[in-house]
Structure formats: C-alpha cells, structure tokens
Amino acid sequence: MNDPRVAPSQYQLVPTRLQERLDKDVTRCHLCLWRCKLVHGQRGFCQAHVNRHGTLYNLSYGILSAIDVAPIEDKPVRHFRPGTRVMSVGSYGCNFRCGGCHNLEISWGVDALDALARGQSTAAYVTPARLVEAAQRAGVQGIAFTYSEPAVWLEYVMDVSELAREAGLYTVYVSNSFVTDQALEMMAPVVDVLCSDIKSLEDAFYKEICGLANVEQVLGSIRKAHDLGIHVETRTNIIPGRNDTDAMYRGIATWIRDNLGVDSPWHITRFFPAFHLAHLPPTPSESLWRAHDIAHQTGLNNVYVYDDKGCDCATDNLPLESYLDGKATDLHQVKKCAASCCGTEGILLKKYEKAAKPET
Ligand code: SF4
Ligand code: SF4
C-alpha cells in the first residue's frame, strides 16, 4: 500500500494496488473487471499498468491530464453536499472504448501513456499533497476523479482520498462501474460518492464498448458500492437509436428504485455527436423528458434532466498551471521514472522490445 506521506516527490512507477502473482512472471490485475493477466513487458487493456518481471506497476500515478473547478452538481451529483464546489482531476487511460467518448485524448490516452513508458512525457506530475493543497487554495470542498475510469489509476485516487479526508475535503468517483468488488472494498473507507453511468440494460451495448463487459457486472458493482455505504448517484446518457426506448427508461428506473431506493437520484444527460457516433443527431429534448416522466411513473422521486449537458468533458478546461503553484516549464519537464530498475532503456514495453529485436 502506498503511503501518501511518502508518495514519490518525482514521477515514478508505483506498484499496482491489487495484483496477484499467478506464475513466475505472470501477474493478474484486479483493479477492474478486465482482470488483465500480464506477462513481463505487457501492459493492461487500459495501458496504464505494466508488468515488469512479475510485478505490476501503475504508469500514470500522479500524472494529471486535466483539472477543473465547478459546482458538485456538474458531476452530476445533487444529493451530497449541494451548493459546494469540487476540483475535478483526471489522468490517462480507460477500461472502455465508448464510440461517443468526448474525452478521447485523455480516456484512451495511448500516446500519453506510451510517452510515459518511453521516458519522454511532458505531462504534469502532481503529488497527492500538492493536489490537496491546490484544492484548498482554490477554496473547493471536494475533489472528483473523472474524465475517464478512475480504477485505472486507483493507486493515486486512494492516496489523494486519504489526504483529502484528513484535510476535511470529500471525494467523488465518477465511474463506468466496470470495477472489481476488491477495488470498491478498498476505496469505500475513503471515497464519499460514486457517480456511476448506467449506459444501457442491453449486454450488446456494453459488448460494443468493452468486449468483456455485461450489464449484470456493471449493476452488481453499483449495488456493491451502495451496500458498502458509498453515496451513489446514477447517470444515463440517452443516445438516439441506442438506448432511447420506453422499455429502457422503465427498466433503468425500476432497477434504481428496487436496488438503490425511490429517493436515489437519476441524472439523464443529452448525447452530443462525437467520434464513432458523429453521424447520430443530438438527443431530442422530448426523449430526455420522456425518460424523466417514465421514471417518475415508475416511482423515482429525484430525476434530473440535463438538456444542455452531456459527458463530463475536459475539452474547455483551463491549463493545469492555472490551479497549481510553480512554473509551467517546471510542471511540464520531461518525466523519466525516478527509479533505476529499468536502466537507461525506459520501461521496455513488450511492443518496443519486439520492435528493437532484429528480424530473424
Ligand atoms: S485496471 Fe487496466 S490493467 Fe488493471 S484489470 Fe483494468 S484494464 Fe487491466
Ligand atoms: S465515455 Fe467514459 S467510460 Fe467510455 S471511453 Fe470515454 S471515458 Fe471511458
């Protein structure tokens, strides 16, 4: 377990929190439900964890891609500390590949994570203590982990959350909920809020964005978080032709009512065309309000419609240095892992090791 008081002062790979050695050099990651089984030199699906001689390391610990400050209602979270402000942060890497993702450079983040692995990254490294200080300086009451799935850098989420709690700040975890029970059990003592997507109730929808995912797993994780005492709010981005039927609205609302309670908030957001789904139109207002009305008929008391808001986008955020002390040039110096176990060759990801070998 990383102790936030001794978090590396410079960028460095840190051991993955939930890992299980299966064989000499074969290790499984248990942070999310991919449960990647990795051999030496391989990275997980999220690209943020690498196996070095049997030990898994997180490449993105402390690496921030975006920061923003906004009301907690923008996450969207409405029934936890309403009226307070929250500092949102994200890194690189995600365990899903949503066709309509608005945060692609951050969420898939392959180039950024490759640069880290090669020791060529100029991304910002911010220790947990420095982030908590930045949040206090900004006058916010909480810190939110968002823009991509936070499970893929849970090492940092945990360390920041522990320090944040000591400093009197709450934490919000914005998730797709394709996470393991072990990860939820680990975070429950220090994370206050889970804001989770319920993207669909059809397995085919989840299969398209994550080959392994299914509805039961995602709903099971949301239920588990609720049972662990984390404050849970759910959100569905209504996408024309994908999840906009009355049966879908009724099904999601019924699941929330029966598993999280009639007062559990459901946030209904509008889809805006992007990436693989750029050919679809934005969601008509009527669909959002239809979902709202059906949810009320189903018995949910707190249903919120966001006609003007889709995902938690990082595209319009101010530069990181607007929130952090120190000079931008220092923040964006080239990062090489401060540990020396890889020698001068970087982390030697398997694909580069292969590329470096002469053809036989
Ligand atoms: S966090 Fe990354 S490496 Fe770990 S199981 Fe999930 S996708 Fe695989
Ligand atoms: S929409 Fe969310 S879960 Fe899907 S790829 Fe983007 S960041 Fe990941």
What does this structure look like?
The protein is of the alpha/beta class. The chain folds into 2 domains: 4-60 and 336-356, no CATH class; 64-306, TIM Barrel (Alpha-Beta Barrel). The chain contains 11 helices and 16 strands. The protein has helices at 104-107, 110-118, 128-138, 154-166, 181-187, 203-209, 215-227, 246-259, 285-298, 328-331, 350-356, and strands spanning 14-15, 19-21, 27-29, 37-38, 49-52, 55-58, 63-64, 66-71, 85-90, 124-125, 142-145, 170-175, 193-197, 231-238, 266-270, 303-306. The strands form 4 sheets. An 8-stranded mixed beta sheet has the order 8-9-11-12-13-14-15-16. The chain has a 3-stranded antiparallel beta sheet with strand order 1-6-5, with no helix packed on it. A 3-stranded antiparallel beta sheet has the order 2-3-4, with no helix packed on it. Strand 14, helix 8 (246-259) and strand 15 form a beta-alpha-beta unit. The longest helix is centred in the last third of the chain and has 14 residues, at 246-259. It is globular and about 60 Å long. The N and C termini lie far apart (43 Å). Mean pLDDT is 91; it is low at 350-360. The structure holds iron/sulfur cluster (SF4) (2 copies).
Distinctive features:
single chain, 360 residues, alpha/beta, TIM Barrel, 2 domains, 8-stranded mixed beta sheet, 3-stranded antiparallel beta sheet, 29% helix, globular, disordered C terminus, binds iron/sulfur cluster
Write out the distinct hetero groups bound to the structure: iron/sulfur cluster
Q: In percent terms, what proportion of residues is strand?
A: 15-25%
Show unreliable segments: 350-360
Question: Cα distance, first to last residue?
Answer: 43 Å
Helix content: 25-40%
What is the name of the CATH architecture of the largest domain? Alpha-Beta Barrel
> How many DSSP helices?
11
